[in-house]
Amino acid sequence: MSAAFQRILLKLSGEALMGDLGYGLDPDIVQGIAAEIKDVVSSGVQMAIVVGGGNIFRGMKGAAAGMDRATADYIGMVATIMNAITLQDALERIDVPTRVQTAIAMQQIAEPYIRRRAIRHLEKGRVVIFGGGSGNPFFTTDTTAALRAAEINANVIFKATKVDGVYDSDPHLNPQAKRYDRVTYGQVLTEELQVMDSTAIALCKDNNIPIMVFDLSVRGNIHKAVMGEQIGTIVGGICEPS
After folding, report:
1. 240 occurs within a structural domain
2. Domain contains 241
């Protein structure tokens, strides 16, 4: 069975990397994700990754505590780079060639983000991890994922989360919450469904990039998504009305 997508962008939240820990990184979780990525890349699929930093520092939380919002966001960007380097190490320990590119210059430890270079790495079979967010405060890593996906011409964004799709309300608080198999970009915006922030959704809609939301904790889900299996929820895509 061949892959349904040639080039994907995987959005990993920082929280996904910490597992059940209250803070930081769970090495077993990181290594498990790396093993799944290796399985996907070995099938010939090109993969880029945007990683969040909420397991270390969240800009909005820092701002709520009285910190200047821009300063808090920059600290959050540095946290994403820490996660990116950690994931790179896990991948390279299992022989997956990987490059980290950052929107904030850190030449001693990572490449600067250069679109054409990122695409060339992907074409050579390397995993590219984008750290540092978009390089600008007031934007989330969800928006970064949508932006980078458009820039590298990704076929789809995989948003790997702690829930198995998109619901009409929080399934942890409402046992009767309804899970959607497919929603439109417009539904996400008008019904304020918690998929990505509105800027990210608008970018995906404008560039017709579908989003697949699924549960990362189920081993094998990344591979199933790549193969085109119906898991989680699909947002938008080629069936989206104009």
Report:
1. no
2. no
Is residue 2 in some structural domain? no
Question: For position 117, which CATH number holds?
Answer: 3.40.1160.10
**C-alpha to C-alpha distance for 218 and 160, rounded to whole angstroms:** 10
Confidence (pTM): 0.91
Q: Say which residues have a Cβ less than 8 Å from residue 157's Cβ, sequence separation at least 6.
A: 8, 9, 10, 11, 145, 146, 149, 204, 209, 210, 211, 212
- 223 found inside a domain: yes
Structural domain of 225:
7-235
Per-residue pLDDT of the chain (242 residues; tens, 9 = 90+): 678 899 999 999 888 888 777 778 888 989 999 999 999 999 999 999 999 988 887 656 666 677 898 998 999 999 999 999 999 999 999 999 999 999 999 989 999 999 999 999 999 999 999 999 999 999 999 999 999 999 999 999 999 888 888 888 888 788 888 889 999 999 999 888 888 889 999 999 999 999 999 988 888 899 999 988 888 999 986 544 33
| Tally of domains within the chain | 1
